[in-house]
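R.M. (postdoc): so does anyone remember the format we settled on? I'll just put the structure tokens first.
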């Protein structure tokens, strides 16, 4: 696009070229969520997704989440699913404590394989990994979410999620550890 510049007397004094970006592209460039906006943007949880019997306090699990978030500022959402047989969310930075594990969560826990995907809008990379004890026993799942835009390195994001998984695993002696004191 060419723009003609006029002086105060409305005489041509120059011109310049300008690139025009679509509103969609500009929006995508500025779509990086903060932790707070990512949490606020989550869909409402259907009451049927909540475990009416969940009453446990997982102070140690919450400490693991808080430590991981402090060490990894690129992570915007983080949750731990544990507590067989329902594998509720027991710790997170976005609430939903007591939400039942869904199909993806249970598949990661039961099969031990990661689940890597982009959200529906393509703005978040979601990495779900098995949560294990020091001895390697699967006891739950960790959900790690990053901001994402086309061209971001998914392998590098997965490496960060795997680092978080290992940091947590090194501190967990058994599934009951998660429900113990934070200190």
């Amino acid at each position: 696009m060419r723009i003609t510049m006029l002086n105060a007397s409305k005489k041509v004094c120059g011109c310049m070229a300008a690139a025009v970006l679509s509103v969609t592209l500009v929006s995508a460039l500025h779509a990086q969520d903060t932790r707070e906006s990512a949490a606020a943007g989550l869909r409402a949880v259907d009451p049927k997704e909540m475990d009416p019997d969940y009453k446990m306090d997982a102070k140690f699990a919450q400490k693991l989440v808080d430590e991981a978030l402090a060490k990894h500022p690129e992570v915007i959402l983080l949750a731990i699913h544990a507590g067989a047989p329902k594998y509720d969310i027991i710790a997170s930075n976005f609430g939903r404590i007591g939400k039942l594990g869904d199909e993806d969560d249970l598949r990661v826990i039961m099969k031990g394989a990661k689940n890597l995907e982009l959200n529906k809008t393509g703005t978040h990379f979601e990495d779900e990994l098995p949560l294990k004890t020091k001895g390697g026993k699967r006891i739950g799942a960790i959900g790690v979410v990053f901001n994402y835009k086309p061209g971001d390195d998914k392998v590098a994001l997965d490496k960060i999620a795997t680092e978080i998984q290992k940091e947590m695993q090194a501190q967990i002696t058994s599934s009951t550890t998660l429900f113990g004191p934070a200190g």
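R.M.: ...and that's the designed sequence above, right after the tokens. Also worth knowing: The chain has one domain: 35-179. The chain is about 30% helix and 25% strand.
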